[in-house]
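Figure 6 in text form: structure in, sequence out.
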């Protein structure tokens, strides 16, 4: 902050995106971590189910990540001007998929919405749904290391919602 009474320069889009993504990740991570405690409920509001096999959770998470990758890929293909904004998020989903250690097939191809802002909103909704699903996966997983990984994935996906909001506002 300038001490000379000069006005503070406005934030660049990159600075705004970085700051909003970081804050969203912190808040989302805190929410996910608190949800992983005892007595938490699932995204549907029901009491969390007992732990299921780690393989089942891994396949569910991998399938969800593969679907997000396909959605990002088709959106980038339809709207190449979004590549600089969406490619880093796509790469993170590829890392999430790798963290599951499971190979799953690509989902059937679906074209993105034909309007740019609707396509971004669809990605944002998919990210929000994925963050809630990861929270649920966290509650179902039994391996503490994988639960930790799921919390990071959930926080990342929640931060993507904030990043996509910034992308949408810049269009």
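Output sequence:
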């Amino acid at each position: 902050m300038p001490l000379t009474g000069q006005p503070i320069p406005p934030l660049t889009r990159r600075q705004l995106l970085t700051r909003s993504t970081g804050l969203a990740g912190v808040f989302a991570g805190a929410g996910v971590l608190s949800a992983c405690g005892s007595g938490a409920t699932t995204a549907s509001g029901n009491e969390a189910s007992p732990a299921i096999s780690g393989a089942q959770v891994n396949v569910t998470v991998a399938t969800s990540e593969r679907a997000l990758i396909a959605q990002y890929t088709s959106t980038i293909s339809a709207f190449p001007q979004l590549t600089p904004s969406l490619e880093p998020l796509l790469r993170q989903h590829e890392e999430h998929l790798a963290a599951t250690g499971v190979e799953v097939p690509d989902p059937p191809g679906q074209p993105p919405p034909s309007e740019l802002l609707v396509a971004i909103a669809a990605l944002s909704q998919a990210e929000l749904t994925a963050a809630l699903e990861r929270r649920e996966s966290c509650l179902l997983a039994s391996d503490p290391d994988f639960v930790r990984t799921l919390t990071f994935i959930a926080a990342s996906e929640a931060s993507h919602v904030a990043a996509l909001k910034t992308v949408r506002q810049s269009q």
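Caption detail: The helical segments are 13-35, 54-78, 83-100, 116-140, 144-169.
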